[in-house]
Amino acid sequence: MEIFPWWTDEQKKFTVELQSFVTQNIPKAEKAFWARAFPMEIVREVQKRGYFGAAVPKKYGGLELGATGACIAAEQLGRLYAVGHVFVVSQLGGTHQLLHFGTEEQKEEWLTKIAKGQLGAVCITEPFAGSDAASVWTTARKEGDEWVIMGKKRYITGAGPADRYFVYTKTSNDPEVIGKYGHLTAFIVEKGTPGFSLEKINELIGFDNVPNGYLNFDDVRVPDFNRIGDVGAGWAIMTSGLNFERLVASAVVGGGLEDIIRMVIYYTNRRVQFNQQTNRFVNNQFKIADMITMNKLARIVTYYTAMLLDNGQNPAVEASIAKLLNTDYAVQTGLDAVQIVAGDGLTKFYPMERLVREGKIGQIVAGTNEVQKLIIYRMGALSYLDMPYRLRMDPDLDVPVLSLDDGPWKGKKITEDVMLKILAEDYRTNPGLYMTVEDLEKETGLEKGKVLELVASLEKKNLVATFKDRRGNVIMAKANYEGLRTAYPAEHYRWFPDWFDPEELGF
Ligand SMILES: Cc1cc2nc3c(=O)[nH]c(=O)nc-3n(C[C@H](O)[C@H](O)[C@H](O)COP(=O)(O)OP(=O)(O)OC[C@H]3O[C@@H](n4cnc5c(N)ncnc54)[C@H](O)[C@@H]3O)c2cc1C
């Protein structure tokens, strides 16, 4: 595993130590995988060594290696399969939430346990609430100093072995509160609390020996001490931790991906067909090159994002990209590896098919990859909104070119006629586009109100078409055909390349 130059000496040392520990334990993990047994023996060893506390501050008994340390641990422990997944949910089930929203007493209580390796789980998903995580039905109602939790959670990784369950509940039915996402509250429920039970364990592809199941909360009473953050702060807690969650959940597939590349190279060196090793076939070489590229790219994004998190930034877009790339690449690498190894790749005696199944899970957990794309689009697009140029007809070239100029109208008296000319002129350079109200403000130097007034008057005269938002506010305008004809004679809009003479054709 490549060590990045910006890591601290402690993080580098941690990587080397963990890598060696994991390599030694892979045979044991493989045995547990085949036996479909939860690898408790390895988990105990990981607990003893304090690796679960990678992101926990030293003050609470952790290693204080930040999000970077948590990713290093997830990436390496992921090579031990079930151990990696249990590590991830133990992180998701409290580390970030307690660090940022817990009281000092709560940190003392649970961060110390996390550091010692107490297994945890995060409980958001319910039968009727998947991607729409704010729509949970599980309720918590206050009775004296206690909260009474009633409902169900499903698809909970670590259900069973985990001792600590970080549960999001609904504490308000008020539509106004719900509208402001103030209806959720977070609690820690510990195994053994009366009324709290395991309902079902899922048989899932890709989670051969990872317990994942349904939980039932039958009037489970927890003290107010177990409430993490304010009443109604559940959504804020859930979303603030998502960057960390997505990142750690994506890093867990990275180590396995690297092992598969190693295995494919090992295999193709030893497999001979048509009197050649199969790594001599260029199609197999290209696929291996793609795998290496994907592995390196995903790791760079993962650890760059971890660095941003450790620097106190809010890398929401980067965390979603890391989740998307790591899991999509895991599926693609698994599929390519199966194709290169072919028949053997489809058997469970080699680990290639396992990566396809595990990667597929990765594409669904911690927010599906479609949800990641929504985040990348909605939040990522914000940094691309600033457009310094406008297309304008260049007077010498007589073609539209990107221009930084203000245009001829700014500072001049803008009448209705001028406004129509501006819109008509825009037809020459952007024939299929509207101009936004902001474009018109920039072009004319007028205030928004005045722009809207002129546009409304032109629309009334049926010279301009507008595009309105859901509330009926004009956000864009365009000269219609009548407007174009009124603004300029038809010749104004004519443009032909040098090699084309319309008159020759009778136009
Ligand atoms: C193996 C495994 C482990 C899991 N571990 C945990 C855990 O530990 N804790 C926990 O709380 N949950 C866990 N989950 C649940 C997981 O987070 C959800 O499965 C996931 O969020 C998707 O919810 P869903 O399966 O109900 O799909 P749905 O939300 O029903 O989505 C169905 C499809 O519609 C798409 N879709 C949904 N909404 C939109 C939208 N707005 N725009 C575009 N497309 C959309 C989705 O991408 C998907 O393709 C786990 C799931 C699995 C499979």
Quick gist of this model?
This protein is α+β, with helices and mostly antiparallel strands and 507 residues long.
Radius of gyration: 30 Å
Total DSSP E strands: 15
Small molecules in complex:
flavin-adenine dinucleotide
CATH class of the largest domain: Mainly Alpha
Order of strands across the main sheet: 1-4-5-8
Oligomer: single chain
What count of domains describes the coordinates? 4
CATH level-four homologous superfamily name of the largest domain = Butyryl-CoA Dehydrogenase, subunit A, domain 3
CATH topology of the largest domain: Butyryl-CoA Dehydrogenase, subunit A, domain 3
State the helicity in percent bands.
Answer: 40-55%
Largest sheet: 4 strands, mixed
Question: What CATH architecture of the largest domain do you see?
Answer: Up-down Bundle
The assigned structural class equals alpha+beta
The outline comes out as: globular
Q: Averaging pLDDT over every residue, what do you get?
A: 96
- State the distance separating the first and last CA atoms: 69 Å
Low-confidence stretches: none
Number of helices: 19
Strand content: 15-25%
